[in-house]
Amino acid sequence: MTTFIVLRYATPCWLAKMTEASYSGQTELRWTPGSAEERDLVLRELDAIVSSSHFKGSKRYPALLKYVVDAALENRAGDLKERTLGVEVFGRDPNYDTNADPVVRVSAGEVRKRIAQFYHENGIHSLLQIDIPVGSYVPEFHLLEQVADASKAGVERGSWMRNQGSLRKSKILTRTVVSVFAVALFAAGLFAGYFYRRTSTAGSSDINNVWQPLLQSTRPVLIVVGTSRPDLLTLETESTSFIEHMTSPYHHLSVSSAIALAHLSGVLEEQQKGYEIKEAPETSLPDVRSRSLVLVGAMNNMWTMRLMRPLRFHFTYEGRVARIEDAANPQQKAWFIDFSAPYTSITTDYAMVARFHDATTEGPVMVIAGLGPYGTEAASEFVESPEYLTKFANAMPRGWENKNFEVVLKSDVIGSKAGPPVLLATYGW
After folding, report:
1. Per the UniProt record, which residue ranges are transmembrane (predicted)?
2. 309 closest CA partner among 288, 331, 327
C-alpha cells in the first residue's frame, strides 16, 4: 500500500501540558511502577482508557497505546522507535519509508488527543494517569499527589492499589472484600471483552459496507480537502519570497481538517487501501475522473459544492449564511450557521456524509463535510466509528449497502470543540 503525502500533525499546546494537569486540586507526580501490583494498576487504567468512547471505535489507536504501555512495563522502552512501531503495530515492512508514510506520528498525535479527552471527562476518578509526551513514544505514568502522600505517610503501597475501586467510591474495603471484588471484576471483564468483540465485529461490518464501493478500484483513493483562502494565491508575485509563500493563509490547514484526515487515513489504512491527498483548488477534472473520491469540507471545497448540488440534501451559501437544504422539503430551514454571528454564539454545527456514484467523475464519491469546522470533524468521526455506523445501518432500509445515501448530522459545539455526531436524517436511492 502506498501513501503519497506527508502530514505534519501539530499537537495543541494544551495537550502538550498534560503532565501539568490537575483535577480537583489533585496534582500529578511522575511515577515508575515497580511491583506486580503496581503494574496491574497501570494495566487497569489502560483498560479503562481503551474501553472508553474515545478509543473503542478504532483499532489502530488502542493497539498503539497498548503496545507502548506493555513495552514500558516490560522495560523495553528503548525499543519504542517510530520504525519499530510501524513494523510491530501497523504491519509495515522493516524497510518502509517513515517520511513518506507517517502512520506512527499521525496515530500518536491522535492517541495523545484522545487521552486528553478521556482525562478531561474522567480524570477526577483516576488514581493515576497515563501520558505519551510530545516528541516521544515512551509513556509516562503519573500518580495523584494525595495518593503519593498517603504512601509516604506509611500506608502500604499495595494496600491502596488493591483498593482502587473503593477509592473511586470513597469507601475502604477489606482485603477479603477486595479479593471478591477483583474476581467479580475479572469475570465482568471477560464478559465485557466478549460483548465488545461482538459489537466491534458488527460495527466493522458496517464500516466495510459504507466504504466498500470506494475500495474496489486498483488506484489509490483521492482525498480532496478544502483550504482556508485559495484566493490569496493570486496576490503573490514572482518577487514573493519562499518564506512568505509558505506562511501565507493559502497553506493553512484547519485543525478540524487535520483531524478529519487523521480519521480517514485510519479507516483506509485498516482497509489496506492507498490514498493520495490534494488541495481542492489544485484539483482538476482529470484528477478526479474514474477513481474513488473523498471530499473533505464544504464551504471551502468547490468540489463538494458542485457535486452535491443535484442531490436531495445539499449545501448552500447565501448572504454569509451556510445551510443544508432539503430539496424534498424546501420549508425546512433549521440546519444553518450564520457566519456573521459572534463565534462564541455558535453552539451547533451541521454536517453531511454522502456516498454516491457521480456521472461527472464516473466513479464513487464520499463527502465528509460540515457547514463549519466542527461539523466536518464530527462527520469524520462518524465514518470511522462502528457505534455510529451501526446506528446509521439500523436506520436505513434493507439493501442500503448497494445504494447511494445521504446522512445529515448535528454536532453540539462545547468549548469551541466538536461534540459527537447526532443522526438527524437519512436518504437512500
Report:
1. 172-196
2. 327
For the record, the C-alpha cell of 358 comes out as 457521480
H/E run at residue 421: strand 417-428
- Say what the alpha-carbon torsion angle 29, 30, 35, 38 is, to the nearest 10 degrees: 60
Provide the grid cell at 232.
Answer: 490569496
C-alpha span between 116 and 208 (Å, rounded): 29
42 and 123 both lie in a single domain? yes
User: Measured between alpha carbons, how far is 203 from 210 in angstroms, rounded to an integer?
Assistant: 11
3-state helix, strand, coil in the chain (%, to 5): 45, 20, 35
Residues 6 or more apart whose CB falls under 8 angstroms from that of 392 comprise 206, 210, 382, 407, 423, 426
Please name the amino acid found at residue 94: P
Q: Is residue 320 part of a domain?
A: yes
The tens digit of pLDDT for each residue in 66-80 reads 999 999 999 998 889
Together in a domain, 229 and 168: no
129 SS3 class:
strand
What's this model's pTM, rounded to 2 decimal places?
0.54
Distance CA 48, CA 61 (A): 14
Query: 79-132 pLDDT, tens per residue?
Result: 899 999 999 999 999 999 888 788 898 899 889 888 888 887 765 556 788 989
